Amino acid sequence: MRILGIIPARGGSKGVPGKNIKLLGGLPLIAYTSNAANDSKYLNKTIISTDDLTIAEVAKQFQIEVPFIRPSSLATDTASSIEVVQHVVTYLESQGEYYDAICLLQPTSPFRKKGFIDKAIEKFINEAADALVSVLPVPHEFNPHWVFEPNNNGFLHLATGEPEIIKRRQDLPPAYFRDGSIYITKTNVIKDGSFYGAKLSYIENNADFYVNIDTLKDWDKAVATLPIVKDKL
């Protein structure tokens, strides 16, 4: 199976200006994701999709290919990730390059345990899934079986539609949220406009590695987390 790694990194960050090349522990943020991708034995190639020439030059320093500069129409606040990935697929296929699956690696989730990408790819392949995402457990107090929504009359009902609440924490079924670290999707599913498809698998990440940088507070968390995870990257 031919798998393409894609690192999306536009230049117009507002929450943390210049975050994709802002130094974190002496390295530009995208270096953490670039290094993790380069360590993978299953990614046939990894490219960066960026609209920013400075980001492109930094990516090249970390052995990530920059086959094009992303169109400005795909670098706005409203441009979706699926559109960005579809653009990459269309462009590379126009150059005669075809891949069976895409591995999206967001630089805003910079910390991945060594070998985690390959472990995710192996699970994706072995389960013949349409897609796989990395996840973390939802804290029990936010489990959907304990979440209430207001109905049209202003009264609360369980979000799951069940008539009675599950009383004991120990009886709650597992629930997960996407941690943003890894998305692996078959190319034909991407072309259909989805990252998930009908058969969505998952791999549980380590909560110690969870950072999703969108604000300066998130950046401060990344700075505080780095000494905890550095020897495992």
Key descriptive features of the protein:
233 residues; alpha/beta; Spore Coat Polysaccharide Biosynthesis Protein SpsA, Chain A; 2 domains; six-stranded mixed β-sheet; two-stranded antiparallel sheet; 6 helices
How is the secondary structure organized here?
Elements: E1 3-8, E2 23-24, E3 27-28, H1 29-39, E4 43-49, H2 53-61, H3 81-94, E5 101-104, H4 116-126, E6 131-137, E7 148-150, E8 156-158, E9 176-186, H5 187-191, E10 200-204, H6 216-229
Parallel strand pairs: 1-4, 1-5, 6-10
Antiparallel strand pairs: 2-3, 5-9, 6-9, 7-8
Molecular structure report:
- With 233 residues, the protein is α/β, with parallel strands linked by helices.
- It folds into two domains: 3-135 and 177-232, Spore Coat Polysaccharide Biosynthesis Protein SpsA, Chain A (Alpha-Beta Complex); 139-174, no CATH class.
- The chain has six helices and ten strands.
- It has helices at residues 29-39, 53-61, 81-94, 116-126, 187-191, 216-229; strands at residues 3-8, 23-24, 27-28, 43-49, 101-104, 131-137, 148-150, 156-158, 176-186, 200-204.
